[in-house]
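Quick one, T. Sequence first:
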Amino acid sequence: MSLVKKQNERFPAFRSLLSDFFESENLSMQDLFQKDWMPAVNVSETDKEYEIEMAVPGMKKDDFQVNIKDGVLIISSEKREEKEDKNKNYTRREFSFRSFSRSFTLPENAKDDDVKATYEDGVLKLAIAKKKIPVSNVKQIAVK
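Structure tokens:
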């Protein structure tokens, strides 16, 4: 059992609202400002390829840049939106900016020249083909 001292407050509802806002487990500063927004990614592997699925709703396929440099797959996007509403009594201007960049080190058996990317229903899908790495034959040498 814990004892709590009751304080005489003038605006208890306001304090409760602030407490809910700052102490909520479901709300984070990232949710408020989306400054460090990073899309969710699923990576899977089949016998023939590596598959990457990235959840990026509200984008267009032209919003993405997919590059491979020195064995690293880089997926990035930048989206800017501006909206202006002019009336004779006021002008309202809204804008937003959202960007991200994700990097993945490709395994040795990934074919960096055989990558397919598609964007449909808010999901960016990449398929990276695998190359066959020859299995080295082990030759046993007898010690005399």
